[in-house]
Amino acid sequence: MITLPASIRVVNKSELIDALHIDNQYAHATISLWGAHILSYAPKHDGRERLFLSEKVLFDGSKSIRGGIPVCWPWFGSRDDELQAHGYVRTQPWQLLSATDETDYTELMLSPETTQGAGFDGIAELRLTIRIGKTMHVSLSTKNVGEETFTYNAALHSYFAVDDIYHTELKGLSGIYSDKPLNWAEFETPSPYLFTSETDRVHLNPVEKVSINQSNVSTVIQSYGHDSLVVWNPWSEIATSMIDMDNDGYQKMLCVETAVTQGVTVNPQQTHTLLQVIS
Ligand code: TA6
């Protein structure tokens, strides 16, 4: 491993999974090297944890980590029965390429063990760059290093922590969304946007700024390079069926995902970047 700056130490999540804990002037954060999965982010100016991590999270490598920010790539959702949902980089070791303490943030850059896998023919270089400061920047860049054009989908599948989903409002979205549980039927975005049942929606209105509002606090999510925002809460029945989610876990989370679901075409030597900024 490269030499770590003063703000970073290695913590052991399991026999298989090491994580990096960042403690700098501005924030605490934890990033698993398995999946380059951000597990936690709490800026020091308010000490509030922004990310949800399931109490029954598994760190045994049997599945993607439940909570935090899974990196979905090179597809989003299910492809077919043979291929795992949300691609194959969230369940592989990533390598830390660089880590530096800068004036306003600590910056880490990671790359997966491989970008090659069944279901994707492109030759790609993938980098996740994370800046931990007063805000957190999470930037996923996909460079075409082959000779053929390719198309990919991806998401920063962020699980945000909420105190109570029944008293949570999502602000900033409008227009039509496609509803997965209702066979992708299209509906008008509700206003106010509240949560009372399973929610699994692809909003094809790629606004740049939304916020999760609770009684006194709000989490602001800015997105760039995306074509969709995905909003997900499994609600009670699905949460109960998950081995890595406690029955009431759905009350404490809301996924708002900066996503490419319609395919981005990347020409040789070009780079496409998906960015989510959390404050
Ligand atoms: O992003 C929403 C979604 O695709 C849902 O349909 C649900 O399946 C969720 O992601 C979680 O997927 P996972 O494979 O992490 O259990």
Automatic annotation (TrEMBL):
This is Putative glucose-6-phosphate 1-epimerase. Its EC number is 5.1.3.15. InterPro entries: Aldose_1/G6P_1-epimerase, G6P_1-epimerase, Gal_mutarotase_sf_dom, GH-type_carb-bd. Belongs to the glucose-6-phosphate 1-epimerase family. It comes from Leucothrix pacifica. GO terms for molecular function: carbohydrate binding; glucose-6-phosphate 1-epimerase activity. It catalyses: alpha-D-glucose 6-phosphate = beta-D-glucose 6-phosphate. The active site is at 157, 257. It is an enzyme of class 5 (isomerase). Keywords: Isomerase. It comes from the Bacteria. GO terms for biological process: carbohydrate metabolic process.
